[in-house]
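Dock adenosine-5'-triphosphate; give full complex structure.
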Amino acid sequence: NASTPLLSVRDLQVHYGPALALSGVSLDVPEKSALAVLGANGAGKSTLARALSGLVPPTAGRVEFAGRDITAAAPDAVRRSGLVHLPEGRGVFPGLTVQENLRMALTPAGAERGGAIDRAFTIFPVLGERRRQRAGTLSGGEQQMLSLARALMITPRLVIADELSLGLAPRLVDVVFEGLERARAAGVAIIMIEQFAHRALEFADRCVVLQRGSVAWSGPASGAGEEVLRHYLGEA
Ligand code: ATP
């Protein structure tokens, strides 16, 4: 059904023990679109990402992805259905080489298609140069690139990029954004959680601002002007 969004979240609620971290969060992500999720520290951005990807179980609400209810699905099942969560700087196997990390991310079908690893090296030349280096010895930024490259191996339908640019040198931030642009051009939908609000808004179609675990503002990314940023994020 063309009018059904790829991801649909309704009244999502998450508790950590007795503490309420998300409440009443509803949002849609249409196929091939990009959503920026902004909010101050502790607003619930990473909690949203974890709840969508099955890492924390919601205490209420419903998450549908590609027409299936994934509200209580395990992380692995969510990933196999095409929703990939990239938590900052993680998800690589430190003892394996760059090339081995990429090979492991391929599904059997992906392996048959071939060329996927070479394509990753075209997008991220630095990974190609370091293909035989153990992932654990890469810099933080290089590990984030490898994590993104691994996600793109399985041609996901939706990538949640959680603060991928955190702590990166500006040049590497550009590389990460380029990688996400390419994924998007290939038809992958993206939820971008970003400290650089302006860049995220340039990238995204729509924007959701979280405040104390709830949606405080949502609208077109081009409509999230300085006033919205100042009011909810304390930024100019
Ligand atoms: P930041 O931008 O600082 O990373 P965030 O918007 O991603 O913040 P979350 O990490 O989702 O915020 O945290 C939302 C709230 O839930 C915070 O008040 C945080 O202290 C709390 N919280 C997060 N993880 C846990 C946990 N494992 N146990 C208890 N409370 C938690």
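Observed: Residues 170-185 form the longest helix (16 residues).
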